[in-house]
Inverse folding.
């Protein structure tokens, strides 16, 4: 067999094997992303038990009938494109994993004050598309209208800070 033909066969074989590996890695990666997006996964760490329990009873949790349900990732990962989503997920996951492994003590009460760093407006807006819907109370209408016009620095979580985890401060204080 001529040398050039043998090189072409090797190149085609390499491309086929590489493509198959890429497909397998993509499928495994997608399955891992899907499985780690579940509430059950987040709640599997003992550090998250308080957050899981308060979420279940809160406005978007499992215990609320008729309310819109939200998973951890709906609020704590940005809906700003796949790369931003995956980058934020990887960074947050690595931070949580390292903190778990080294048994880092986290002051959750202090971190609670920074909650706007860990929740994303895009998650709220994904479900709450019509903020000034007819029939809402006038106070809510005025606040949402100001928000939609960009006349305030407040975020969704600034006003609705108990919707994700209820009275998280009380739960954290009872935990100590």
């Amino acid at each position: 067999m001529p040398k050039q033909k043998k090189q072409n066969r090797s190149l085609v074989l390499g491309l086929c094997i590489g493509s198959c590996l890429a497909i397998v890695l993509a499928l495994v990666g997608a399955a891992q992303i899907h499985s780690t997006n579940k509430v059950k996964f987040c709640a599997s760490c003992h550090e998250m038990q308080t957050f899981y329990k308060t979420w279940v009873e809160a406005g978007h949790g499992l215990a609320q009938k008729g309310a819109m349900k939200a998973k951890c990732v709906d609020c704590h990962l940005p809906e700003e494109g796949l790369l931003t989503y995956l980058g934020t997920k990887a960074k947050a996951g690595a931070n949580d994993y390292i903190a778990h492994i080294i048994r880092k003590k986290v002051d959750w009460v202090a971190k609670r004050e920074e909650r706007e760093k860990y929740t994303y407006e895009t998650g709220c807006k994904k479900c709450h598309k019509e903020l000034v819907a007819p029939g809402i109370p006038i106070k809510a209408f005025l606040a949402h209208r100001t928000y939609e016009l960009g006349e305030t620095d407040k975020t969704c979580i600034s006003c609705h800070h108990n919707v994700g985890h209820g009275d998280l401060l009380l739960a954290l204080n009872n935990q100590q």
